[in-house]
């Protein structure tokens, strides 16, 4: 069968899809990956076939999108308190998301036009779309393909959409504003494709939802989920010799990921301060930093090794703990290898939710600095608290034991190869 993956130009979102794409390719299927031009080199380096869609100029990934930051746009969707999720709140959140976030921040008009046009010409049997790339389900509907949504973390969109659909049905006719239906209808109309109200759920949450996130981190939603084992993909790389040498002291990895420094205007707090705080412990600290981050700290402690990049899948088996921002790729690597986490969360999507879930399982701790920021987020990091947390995670065996239990649960989850067989049945079924 022909399988089209659709993802906007974010490496972390694409890397999340690579193991499944290769499982389908290895099963004999014709696989293409459509994204904006900025991501094409990363796609081709995986050995997969890239389909450039959209204009280079339509790939803004900075802190501002039409005057509204990614953090502000996401904050509404990640709200979970039942008393806040009224019809007015949910309606307002999706009105903003459809008009700004979904329309502009994940590809814009040119990506949608190109993707739908390619899908009509190539006629895929299945479209697998990143859960923020809503051009994907539009292209599937236009071309008649089956389609599956692929999550990259906690399903906040699915959760809020379920509230939206329920609350919309409860409204009197005069209050049934439907920005999601209007947005989807407008996108389909550009390709002379009819929209029916029943399509909204399918196009927002997929005919199936592929979920590589451990089930204890997800909401109990009544959606057609297909669980898939998280398989790390860290990009093309080689493994330095020192990684294979057993450390004499507990090895700790500190990373704030690549997304913030490459696409979101920099880290939320000072890496230099974090290094200085935890390097006081009797550990070997491996920090992934670029030249700008290193410049913040002219003198590095003797027990700190700085590298621009090292594949976490190869480094973490030798680590006793990892300190990071809560990004799904970093967290997934850590959970696969049973490494306890300390999360100093970003506030872009699900970082806080991940930290809370890990604390609940006794597999990590979260340094929540939101209430400490008197002069902005950078000044709000509790460095003493970070050092104390790391000492505790290293000293108390329960963190390692509970992390090992999560690793066992992940290993028992169906693999990408297993899911490839299910997707064959989806593509062959009644759409």
TrEMBL record:
List residues of the Erythromycin biosynthesis protein CIII-like C-terminal domain. Answer: 274-426
Alphabetically ordered keywords of this record = Antibiotic biosynthesis, Glycosyltransferase, Transferase
Q: Which GO terms describe its molecular function?
A: hexosyltransferase activity; UDP-glycosyltransferase activity
Give GO terms for biological process: antibiotic biosynthetic process
Is Secreted one of the keywords UniProt gives this record?
no
Give the coiled coil ranges.
none
Listed SUPFAM superfamilies: UDP-Glycosyltransferase/glycogen phosphorylase
Q: Where does the record place the Erythromycin biosynthesis protein CIII-like N-terminal domain?
A: 22-257
Q: Name one Pfam family in it.
A: EryCIII-like_C
Q: What InterPro entries is this protein classified in? A: EryCIII-like_C, EryCIII-like_N, Glycosyl_450act, Glycosyltransferase_28, UDP_glucos_trans
The record's listing under PANTHER family reads: STEROL 3-BETA-GLUCOSYLTRANSFERASE, STEROL 3-BETA-GLUCOSYLTRANSFERASE UGT80A2
Family membership noted in the UniProt record? Belongs to the glycosyltransferase 28 family.
Protein name stated in the entry: Activator-dependent family glycosyltransferase
> What organism does the record attribute this protein to?
Actinomadura rudentiformis
């Amino acid at each position: 069968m022909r399988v089209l993956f659709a993802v906007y130009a974010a490496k972390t979102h694409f890397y999340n899809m690579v193991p499944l794409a290769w499982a389908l390719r290895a099963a004999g299927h014709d696989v293409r990956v459509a994204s904006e031009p900025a991501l094409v080199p990363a796609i081709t380096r995986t050995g997969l076939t890239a389909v450039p869609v959209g204009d280079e100029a339509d790939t803004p990934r900075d802190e501002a999108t039409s005057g509204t930051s990614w953090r502000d746009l996401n904050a509404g969707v990640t709200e979970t308190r039942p008393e806040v999720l009224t019809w007015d709140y949910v309606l307002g959140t999706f009105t903003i998301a459809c008009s700004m976030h979904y329309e502009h921040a994940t590809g814009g008009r040119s990506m949608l036009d190109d993707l739908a046009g390619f899908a009509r010409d190539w006629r895929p049997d299945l479209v697998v779309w990143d859960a923020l790339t809503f051009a994907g389900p539009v292209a599937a509907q236009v071309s008649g393909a089956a389609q599956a949504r692929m999550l990259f973390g906690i399903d906040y969109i699915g959760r809020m959409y379920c509230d939206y659909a329920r609350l919309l049905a409860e409204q009197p006719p005069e209050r049934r504003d439907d920005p999601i239906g209007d947005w989807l209808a407008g996108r389909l109309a550009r390709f002379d494709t009819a929209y029916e109200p029943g399509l909204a759920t399918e196009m927002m949450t997929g005919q199936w939802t592929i979920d590589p996130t451990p089930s204890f981190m997800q909401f109990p939603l009544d959606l057609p989920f297909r669980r898939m084992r998280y398989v790390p993909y860290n990009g093309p790389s080689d493994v330095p010799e020192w990684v294979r040498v057993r450390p004499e002291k507990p090895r700790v990895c500190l990373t704030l990921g690549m997304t913030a420094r490459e696409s979101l205007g920099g880290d939320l707090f000072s890496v230099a301060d974090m290094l200085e705080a935890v390097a006081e412990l009797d550990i070997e600290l491996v920090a992934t930093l670029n030249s700008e981050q290193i410049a913040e700290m002219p003198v590095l402690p003797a027990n700190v090794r700085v590298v621009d990049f090292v594949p976490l899948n190869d480094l973490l088996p030798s680590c006793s703990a990892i300190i990071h921002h809560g990004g799904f790729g970093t967290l997934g690597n850590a959970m696969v290898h049973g490494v306890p986490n300390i999360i100093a969360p970003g506030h872009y999507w699900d970082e806080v939710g991940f930290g809370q879930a890990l604390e609940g399982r006794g597999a990590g701790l979260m340094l929540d600095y939101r209430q400490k920021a008197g002069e902005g987020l950078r000044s709000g990091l509790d460095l003493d608290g970070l050092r104390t947390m790391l000492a505790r995670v290293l000293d108390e065996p329960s963190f390692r034991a509970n992390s090992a239990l999560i690793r066992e649960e992940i290993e028992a989850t169906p693999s990408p190869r297993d899911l490839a067989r299910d997707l064959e049945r989806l593509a062959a079924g009644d759409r």
